[in-house]
UniProtKB/TrEMBL annotation:
Keywords attached to this entry: Heme, Iron, Metal-binding, Monooxygenase, Oxidoreductase, Signal
Coiled coil spans: none
Annotated metabolic or biological route of this protein: Secondary metabolite biosynthesis
Keyword DNA damage: no
Keyword Metal-binding: yes
Binding site for heme: 409
Domain of life, per lineage: Eukaryota
Species the sequence originates in: Serpula lacrymans var. lacrymans (strain S7.3)
SUPFAM superfamilies: Cytochrome P450
UniProt protein name: Cytochrome P450
GO molecular function, one term: iron ion binding
Gene3D superfamilies: Cytochrome P450 (1.10.630.10)
Length: 480
């Protein structure tokens, strides 16, 4: 293709540095939504010659990332995190090709649909009931309990590993890994990402301390990935491995060494991509309930009518609870967990709607923008589960929040189950209200923090059992 077509519009660049001063480092999704008003749904800009394309509508995301998936499914190459610190082998950063498709097939076979997730319903339920007990014991430590629960669910489903207490060594190691990863991927954190030839500079050269850091981080990554994998193999050898992603795949006949490597690295992606994201979504659920007592009451009325008050809800009750279902959709929309998705990279020049999208562009989807666009949602800033009920429901946010095309989130059904079961069981037994300090009610606001995974800013709320019967139900949960 000759570059005869114009690039998608965007702010005017400066020579060499391009649009470096136009794009805010933090929460750039707001800027992209503003630019949309001026330039339309497809935008482009460059920073130091690197071309970025931003997609601002669901239709375009489908047309480009789904329908032209063959050329839009690569990932940007991260020199520090990917090449030097070893993360390039994880599913999230893996380039497009046969290995990626193999990893994704594993996800598909084990957790690729709501029906398959039923194999993991007992785990989801057991660990969420444990969460209710933790909250009852110590309602002020909400974020700690959420984190522990999300970690436990992922480690149990991926490795059959049962998290022990509040200071579990594997959780600690995995959390450490994640902070290393986010530290490395903050824009501009490492010069080597802009000047990749620097990766050949030896560690002892002044200024090359990133080599030492990368070595250290890579060691932590391998220790965790190899260690958890070995844990499952040891359990299988002893005949005590519970059903999990890894035990199920390793149990298949005629595995090659290559297959085992692929199983190991695809499982590693579950924790890296699944824990923080779930934490953010669950935390935003509690914020929404704090701010919207009327919504909470409507959901509780439905639960009381359908389930009664002498047992806890399960995932099997889902179809009978349309309001709670709508509420959990609204949780996915109202606060956007991954506001710009994960960038895709294009592998060929393409002309779309008359614009040139050059090979090697980084393609971002403004997920926050789509989920807060007035054309898709009435009063988008409000928390309104009703928008998904009735004869003309608004766009299902689960078709947006998990990304598009061949890199769409392979953990979406797991995330969806975790969110639903947490919402429904919490509402069945607790009231979430604004906390009161010195006689004054504290009214939090929704503020999504900066980051590839955006968490709601910390807030206070009060969580109390709905009734003595509800409290008794929590006590009756068998010890774990
Ligand atoms: C609320 C929870 C979650 C949200 C909002 C979310 C969102 C996303 C998004 C937007 C992407 C990028 C898709 C794209 O590139 O187009 C993604 C990728 C991914 N997610 Fe999730 N996710 C969530 C939970 C999970 C869970 C629980 C798991 C695993 C068990 C998981 C595993 C992954 C993996 C492995 C990728 C990388 C896929 C690839 O590069 O091919 N996610 N997720």
């Amino acid at each position: 293709l000759k570059p005869s077509k114009p690039l998608p519009p965007g702010p005017r660049p400066l020579p060499i540095v391009g649009n470096i001063f136009n794009v805010p480092i933090d929460k750039s999704w707001f800027a992209f939504s503003d630019w949309q008003k001026k330039y339309g749904d497809l935008l482009s800009f460059h920073i130091l010659g690197r071309r970025f394309i931003v997609i601002n509508s669901a239709e375009l995301a489908i047309d480009i990332l789904d329908k032209k998936g063959a050329i839009y499914s690569d990932r940007p190459r991260l020199t520090m995190a990917g090449d030097l610190a070893g993360w390039k082998d994880t599913l999230i950063l893996l380039g497009y090709g046969e290995t990626l498709r193999k990893y994704r097939r594993y996800f598909h076979r084990l957790i690729g649909s709501r029906a398959l997730m039923q194999n993991f319903h007992p785990v989801e339920e057991r660990l969420t009931y444990r969460f209710l007990q933790d909250i009852l014991k110590n309602p002020n430590d909400l974020s700690t309990h959420i984190r522990k629960t999300a970690d436990s669910i992922i480690l149990s489903i991926s490795y059959g590993y049962d998290v022990q207490g509040d200071h579990d060594p594997w959780v600690k190691m995995a959390d450490n890994l994640l902070s290393q990863f986010s530290e490395m991927t903050v824009a501009g954190a490492y010069l080597v990402d802009f000047l990749p030839f620097l990766k050949h500079v030896p560690e002892w050269v002044p200024g090359a301390s990133f080599q030492k850091t990368a070595k250290e981080y890579k060691a932590t990554l391998y220790q965790a990935v190899d260690g958890l994998h070995q844990f499952v193999k040891d359990q299988m050898a002893a005949g005590i491995a519970p059903f999990s992603f890894v035990s199920s795949l390793l149990g298949e006949a005629n595995l090659s060494g290559n297959d085992e490597h692929a199983i190991k690295w695809s499982a590693a992606a579950m924790y890296s991509a699944g824990a923080e994201t779930t934490v953010s979504a669950l935390y935003s659920f509690f914020l929404a309930m704090t701010l919207h007592p009327e919504t909470q009451k409507a959901a509780q009325a439905e639960i009381d009518a359908v389930i009664g008050s002498d047992r806890l809800p399960t995932l099997a009750d889902r179809a009978a609870l349309p309001y709670v279902e709508a509420l959990s959709k609204e949780v996915m929309r109202w606060h956007t967990v991954a506001p710009l998705s994960i960038p895709h990279a294009s592998t060929k020049d393409d002309i779309h709607n008359g614009y040139l999208i050059p090979k090697g562009s980084y393609v971002l989807v403004n997920i926050w923008g789509i989920l807060h666009n007035k054309q898709n949602y009435s009063e988008p800033d409000l928390f309104k589960p009703e928008r998904f009920l009735g004869d003309h429901p608004e766009l299902d946010p689960r078709t947006v929040a998990f990304g598009y095309g061949r890199r769409i989130c392979p953990g979406m059904h797991l995330a969806d189950a975790s969110i639903f079961i947490t919402c429904v069981t919490t509402l069945a037994v607790f009231n979430v209200t604004k906390s009161v300090e010195n006689g004054v009610e504290i009214v939090p606001t929704l503020e999504g923090l900066a980051g590839a995974i955006s968490h709601p800013a910390p807030f206070k709320c009060s969580i109390t059992p709905r009734s003595p019967e509800a409290e008794a139900l929590i006590h009756e949960i068998p010890a774990h």
